[in-house]
Amino acid sequence: MVFIVIVIICFLLQMIAPWWIIIVVAFATCGIIGKTGKIAFWHSFFAICLLWIGYSLFKSLPNDNLLASRVAVMTGVKLWWALLLVTGILSGLVAGISGYCGYQFRMAMLAKKTDDKIA
Amino acid sequence: MNKLKAIFCIIIPISLAFLFNTKIGSAPPVLKFLNPFMGFWQNAENNHFMFNHKVKIKGALDQVEIVFDDKMIPHIFAQNDHDLYLAQGYVTAMHRLWQMDFQTRFAAGRISEVVVSEPARESDRYQRRMGMVYGAENSLEGMMADPKSKEMILAYTEGINAYIKTLSHANYPLEYKILDFKPENWTPLKCALLLKQMSAILAMGSDEFYMTNILKKFGPEITKNLFPDYPFKEDPIIPVGTKWNFTPLPIPKTPESFTASQTGDVRTKEKVEGIGSNNWALSGSKTASGYPILANDPHLELSLPSIWYQIQLHAPGINTYGVSLPGAPGIIIGFNQRIAWGVTNVAADVLDFYQIKFKDSSHNEYWYNNKWNKTTKRLEVIKIRGSKDLIDTVYYTHQGPVVYLQKANFVKANSVPVGDALRWIAHDRSNELMTFYYLNRGKNYNDYRKALTYYTAPAQNFVFASVDNDIAITPNGKFPLKWKNQGKFILDGTDPAYDWHGWIPASQNPTVKNPPRGFVSSANQSSTDQTYPYYLNWEFSPYERGKRINDRLTTMNKATLDSIRLMQTDNYSILAQNLIPAVIPLLNPENLNATQKEALSYLTKWNKRYDANEIAASIFEIWTKRLAFDIWDDEFTVKGVPMRYPSRDRTVEMILKEPAAKWYDNVNTSQKETLSDLVNESFKYSCDSLERRFGPINKDWSWSNVKQSNVPHLAKIPGFGSKVLQIGGAKSTINALSETNGPSWRMVIELGKNPKGHGVYPGGQSGNPGSKFYDNMLDTWASGQLYDLFYMQTPDDQSGKVISRLKISK
Predict the structure, then answer these.
(1) pTM, full prediction
(2) Range(s) of the domain holding residue A60
(3) Into how many domains does chain A fold?
(4) Closest C-alpha to B339, from B759, B751, B791, B794
(5) Nearest residue on chain A to B34, judged by CA atoms?
(6) Would you call A90 and B31 a contact, using CB atoms and an 8 Å cutoff?
């Protein structure tokens, strides 16, 4: 569920919003519907990792990976698909961490409320 | 505890966002850059589908139709001049926006706004202090004063800005994303800056600081002997014996005093051969078709995106095709239905330094014409990305800016004497655009002559051919009227006799029309023989390329496209022809080791061509460079006194004719060296250095492998330049291709009822490294082939392949 929600919302928002919207979306989604920490991290991770890899391929394949190969030389990773993996993993990690933080944030707030009630 | 956890859960994502959205060092903001929705992936162009487009531009007066051929070259069909230049601005920006922006920022000394580094800051200071912006402002006034050039420049600017307006972050050119900055609006001043930058590239060379030091160290006699006012071997552009059919103005008197200047702390450099080019035109009497053929290949420091931008401009009264400079309206080198023209650089001395006597360290007053005169101040504000502005005060005398008051730690500043004012033609009000306006529309010889009168700088040899079977060449520009050798050394800034004394009238610039030999040519060598009444400069580029061109054209009859094309890639070395018979007999074979003996046998069998696979060319090149070093370095490298070596021409003359010259002796050793000693030492040095790099003689010694020709990216971004090209050519051959300097455009035009154009440059139309049109012409260029240029008569002309169309309407 978290996976699908993040993929759809990010895909739509990224048409107009800057890249860091993935942080906001992952945080909010997991903060609202994240069930466990594990789910929050991994669903966010794969949602963004696959979305970014997929969209990169959508742009790069019709280009015969010409540009990706040049940028791979520039960045030092050398091979275009390595650059693709870096894109996916790095964005996935940032989304995963944000999702996990979103989930933990809710837990902290809930715990605080319970603490308040008990007090 | 939970509060703390909640705070952490918010801080971590925010800091991640910040971390990956920030440019750190030279690396782009990582995730902003990798984002496939807006980052670099968006610049990957579809290689397989092209689409037609329509765009509305408010300023357009009428419909414009732009046709892109199969090499992405735009052919613009407009109804009026305004729309023509508007569309030229629009499509040039579409393909080359970053290049135009970056080059004009560089010219204006504004690189620090986007790149933070010490060299960037020094480059900015240098550009400002040399008066680049000052010159561009004056030049712009000149352009705006004529209604035609004003319309050109304003419409062109409007077109560029219309394109910039269509951009969002996702489709910014790639380099903006790497360097993390935004396109800014174009201004007319930027067009002027771009043209000034061409002057800076072609006419900013200055040896007078070095020459003054040489004069001080060796005295006038030796200086005159080693740095003569006319070359030993020459084959001038205007054929020897051409009569001057004008009465020259009186030449200003040479003042009796001479001054020298203080010196800085720089090491002597071997004089690097300046930027050169070739052009020539054959009259119909020497061609198979009976109509003239014109050829041009300007040599520049090569880069990607390509220096030139091909375009066809069609509107009522004009239908011209050729190459433009991204950032300037019109066509610089090209042809139309009736004429063709091209340019090479003239090394006229249009830049002089004056030693200034300031009253005190405030630099507010300077001594001139027996009284104290006020300097003016110009504040240059250099904005620096992420820190405070740098404010630099430049003092101007009536001559021009005092470039440096203290020695600058910057390579280009080495030839600039400290405390001296710069008088440079590029600071003057001018309007070069009109020359191209009239050439683009020219019909005959008279139109050509008229167009040239508008031209100031950088001075060029304008070659011309017309369908009426006229050919001509004119070393052309605004030349100061000088006494002989004025500006060979640093000038006295206190005495009015040292000022420039007016101008050589444009009609008296050297020129020749339809010479009896049936061709005209230039390769940056001396403009004339010694009978020309005016002083242009004491030294031009070495004569070897010009000599080879003239030798070949003299024997050529029934010339065709192929004979001319093959000539443009001719690798034969006149230098080798002159030197080999003189130096090989001096080698002592008994003292050579096995490799050196083998190298010698390669040299004796050499056909004197710098072809890609020639091993002898590599040996010869390093050998002769080292020989010049051996001869001159001991005398001409003195710590703290920057000087230069005598020219290649003078060195060759000495080797051929003065076997006992004192300069062969190395003054740093006790024994006495002879020419033969140096020839043997330098030969061994050449073989040994090649052997150290590549092992015993094998195919790695081949010239192309030693030379490593390639075309780097303009900002030297790795991966964005070309691969190493295995091709021949060398500085002293017609195909003047060194490591990264060479023919930036090769063009051959066959005139006739319908002109046929052929051309290629090392790169492509697009400036986007993510486009297949970024470097698609490179291999054709490297193999010495040319493309047929598609000279269209209407937007629906079927003679070439069209891949897409763009319609502009209001």
Answers:
(1) 0.94
(2) 2-118
(3) 1
(4) B751
(5) A87
(6) yes
CA B548, CA B564: separation in Å to the nearest integer? Answer: 13
Taking alpha carbons only, the member of B187, B164, B145, B152 closest to residue B80 is B152
Q: What is the mean pLDDT of each run of 10 residues along chain B (810 residues)?
A: 85 92 88 95 92 92 95 96 97 97 95 91 93 94 95 97 95 94 95 90 81 87 90 92 89 69 43 73 95 95 95 97 96 97 92 91 92 94 92 94 84 82 92 95 96 93 96 95 89 91 92 95 93 91 92 95 95 95 93 93 95 96 95 88 89 93 91 93 95 94 96 94 94 92 95 96 96 96 96 90 93
- Give ipTM to 2 decimals: 0.95
CA torsion sign for B721, B722, B723, B724 is: negative
Q: Tell me the CA end-to-end span of chain B in Å, nearest whole number.
A: 65
d(CA B133, CA B380): 9
**Whether B38 and A87 lie within 8 Å, measured CB to CB:** no
Q: What secondary structure does DSSP assign to A37-102, as a single string?
A: HHHHHHHHHHHHHHHHHHHHHHHHGGGTTHHHHHHHHHHT--SHHHHHHHHHHHHHHHHHHHHHHH
Q: Which residues pair with B342 in a beta bridge?
A: B463
Asked if B44's CB is within 8 angstroms of A60's CB, the reply is yes
Cβ pair B66, B301 in contact under 8 A: no
Q: Which amino acid is at B521?
A: S
Main-chain dihedrals φ then ψ at residue B503, nearest 5 degrees: -135, 150
Nearest-angstrom CA–CA distance, A59 and A56: 5
SS3 B772: coil
E strand segments, B40-96 = 53-56, 64-69, 74-77
DSSP state of B534: S
Q: How many Å lie between the alpha carbon of A3 and the closest alpha carbon of chain B?
A: 18
